[in-house]
Protein: Protein-methionine-sulfoxide reductase catalytic subunit MsrP
Organism: Marinobacterium halophilum
Amino acid sequence: MLIRKAPDIAPSEITPESIYRQRRQFMKGLAAGGALLMSGQASALARYALDEEQVRYLGPDWLQQKLRAAQKSSVFSTDEPLAPYEHVTGYNNFYEFGLGKDDPKAYAQNFKTDPWSVEISGEVHKPGTYQLEDILKGVDLEERIYRLRCVEAWSMVIPWVGFPLASLLKRFEPTGNARYVEFTTLHDPKQMPGQRSRFGTIDWPYVEGLRMDEAMHPLTLLAVGVYGDALPPQNGAPLRLVVPWKYGFKSIKSIVGIRFTEQMPVNSWQRTAPREYGFYANVNPSVNHPRWSQSTERRLPSSLFSPNIIDTQPFNGYADQVADLYSGMDLRKWY
Ligand code: MTE
């Protein structure tokens, strides 16, 4: 990835008014969560009751209700220690809002994520433009704690809230020609300063793709929340992909388009630097990036004196679940 050396996270000194209002709203939400708990229902909000100084993102009412009902999936979750909330929401890659790790949090706070719609197109029997609220009707959300391994060789353990991509794709009834799925992020330079920059690295909008069997794999998640709350804008609100066995750049944020295709899509990083980034981007410690090793990773939180370097696992530790998707393929060629 065309990256600058990441600075350590600088906690923001300033609280924009919108955040302050969200925080007040959070306190109300926390009280509501507590009431739910007392009535015997599990509450994701109460489960991650953070201190009141932390910014929480609640999203629209209909989403809050669904988030509170989310159940933890132990089958799909790791029990490794979670990255702290401020790392998950303050150390981000979202080039639409800038190249620095703290740019997305600084510049995405007024990003409008409600109402939101997703256009379904291509090789599919039920194309159309669907409101997010309709997409989520009848969907039970679950919490899954996944490892996220960035191609830049850092990683975090993150508690996402979402639902399997497969369940959504099936509803649109892909045709027999659908071999791949292409995802597109919103293109809105007015809201996204990175898309206005003359020094941009990416040909906007950001695009990603999966082979159909990868998209249908039970590990592949569409996330609408994190840490029991709605996704913050910097994490790809209101809808993002999470593919835990692939490098983080496959996990495209703020999705507005899903297209079923016969041809393999060209994803944004592959288009930008084809020698460095491929279509598959499976986490693979034995295939180095042309400019750095992929055999280890910096597990956040880490610091200069305690870098917390760990070995990178094939398929990010999910090999027993996904390796057979690639049997017979030369993973050096299909990086
Ligand atoms: N999606 C869009 N639209 N734009 C981006 O710049 N960055 C990717 C991915 N999704 C990116 C994106 C990269 S490189 C990573 S590592 C993850 O988002 C980071 O997700 P996080 O910020 O929620 O940890």
In short: Residues 92-96, 148, 150, 185, 206, 235-236, 248-249, 251-254 surround MTE (CB under 6 Å). The chain has one domain: 71-324. Confidence is low (pLDDT under 50) at residues 3-45. The longest helix spans residues 17-38.
